[in-house]
Design goal:
The chain is mostly helical and 468 residues long. 59% of the residues lie in helices and 3% in strands.
């Protein structure tokens, strides 16, 4: 990339030609912007292309995305909007029209693309990937030659072969024990962290074709974390911690091979491994690094961006959203528990909240033997689980505000009045979130403590931690 940027600097005439070509393609939009923004005589001209950056659309998209949320959550969802975003009532009509034009142009430079290995990669609008792909920018006066495709593919084949060879050397648990651990996973882990689509996973898990089975790195991570919730004699009879550590180490060895190849299964496994280590006595610096890997790999696949314009299959788009927000939650709570900086900036993220899809309750076990009554029950359970997950996301967004505005080093110079005002505002956000909880998630103080729903208890404990 440095060499490409160097080519841009060295070939000024070529850059001018590229900008001219770009303006011709978007001439109508640019001209309409000129009419919407009449230039003052004492204002220097600024090329439109210099306006686009990796976050140029975040504020407008964030306003559109959160318009249906409560006011407290809308403020909490985008860091930059807390102090700087003006209301729509304060924006003149021509400002709104111009903003839409700018967003449309900027979004054209943000895309999912395929690398030389055929893997999807995300490149934001500041990368200028659209210009590079269409016009083949010159380097030192010569066209950039194709990257060494054959060498790259040979490397990729060798990498895949090494991963397959390593997977073949790893023995999985006996089928009855593996089935039990998978059942424990979906009973105890999945409701709090829906990084998998259960029906799709179960169909793959039951498929006799080994090629269609779930990735070994994902299975090992699932076995590790599920071992914390079982009383199976083969696990409890030995050392439960050692059993989980064994499968954690297997997943880690596979991750060390796979991290250069962007895969959704690797990100899912990393997040489960992070959660496993956070609940372990052996938690250390490695878990912090793995969380960073999960964040960066997800961003590499563009999971932090709204995928509506990429025309992905609905189920795939939904799984991406759930996985991204699960990473977001772990990032916020991991940063809070360790007192370290957050890895995700709200202004870089414009992903919608997860929602229920029909595939959540149609044949969830992959057996095809569910009755309509069972499907209705599963639909209610799926709706409740996603409702719980979305409220966890909103609470994590407020927690991020707390970490940034109270515990950031930049707040040390704030005076008592400013600190008090900030604390009061954040407390109001928490209170509004708590009062706006759906009836199904409200805590009944008069109810029987023995019959409390685990999700209700968990989310209210998280609320109390945030409030403290």
């Amino acid at each position: 990339m440095e060499s490409l940027l160097g080519g841009l600097v060295q070939n000024g005439d070529r850059v001018k030609l590229e900008l001219d070509n770009w303006r011709e393609d978007h001439d109508d939009d640019v001209d309409s912007l000129d009419t919407l923004f009449p230039q003052s005589p004492d204002t220097p001209a600024t090329p439109v292309m210099n306006q686009h950056s990796s976050s140029s659309t975040s504020t407008a998209n964030s306003r559109h995305h959160h318009s249906s949320l409560p006011a407290s959550i809308s403020r909490a969802s985008t860091i930059s909007s807390v102090l700087t975003e003006e209301s729509d009532e304060e924006v003149l009509p021509f400002d709104l029209e111009a903003r839409e034009k700018i967003n449309a142009i900027s979004e054209n430079l943000s895309t999912l693309t395929l690398d030389n290995g055929g893997f999807i990669r995300y490149l934001g609008n500041s990368s200028g990937i659209d210009m590079l792909q269409r016009n083949h920018i010159l380097r030192n006066g010569h066209p950039i030659p194709p990257m060494r495709m054959k060498e790259h593919r040979d490397w990729l084949l060798q990498k895949e072969f090494s991963i397959t060879q390593m997977e073949g050397q790893m023995t999985m648990p006996p089928k009855d024990l593996a089935d039990h651990l998978i059942e424990c996973y979906f009973a105890y882990v999945h409701p709090n962290m829906p990084v998998l689509h259960q029906p799709t996973f179960m169909r793959q898990y039951r498929d006799p074709d080994p090629v269609r089975k779930p990735a070994a790195v994902l299975l090992n991570a699932m076995f590790a974390i599920a071992s914390r919730f079982t009383i199976h004699p083969e696990i409890v009879g030995t050392d439960p911690e050692a059993f989980g550590d064994e499968y954690f180490d297997r997943a880690k060895r596979l991750i060390d091979y796979e991290y250069e190849i962007p895969r959704q299964s690797s990100i899912q496994a990393l997040l489960l491994m992070v959660t496993f280590r956070f609940t372990s006595e052996k938690s250390g610096g490695r878990v912090w690094v793995m969380l960073g890997m999960a964040i960066r790999m997800a961003q590499d696949l563009g999971m932090h961006r709204n995928s509506a314009r990429w025309h992905l299959p609905p189920l795939e788009a939904e799984v991406r959203k759930r996985l991204w927000w699960a990473i977001y939650i772990v990032d916020r709570w991991g940063s809070a528990s360790m007192g370290r900086p957050m890895g995700i900036d709200d202004s870089d993220c414009d992903v919608d909240y997860p929602s229920v899809v029909e595939q959540d309750w149609v044949d969830p076990d992959g057996n095809g033997d569910k009755s309509p009554e069972d499907n209705d029950k599963l639909k209610q359970q799926s709706s409740f689980a996603l409702e719980y997950f979305v409220e966890k996301i909103k609470l994590a967004q407020i927690l991020g505000q707390i970490l940034r505005r109270v515990y950031s080093p930049q707040t040390r110079n704030h005076g008592p009045t400013q600190v008090l005002s900030t604390v009061q505002e954040l407390d109001t956000m928490l209170t509004k979130w708590h009062l706006a909880l759906p009836p199904s998630l409200k805590y009944d103080h008069k109810g029987d403590p023995q019959n409390l729903d685990r999700m209700v208890t968990t989310i209210h404990c998280s609320y109390c931690k945030s409030d403290i």
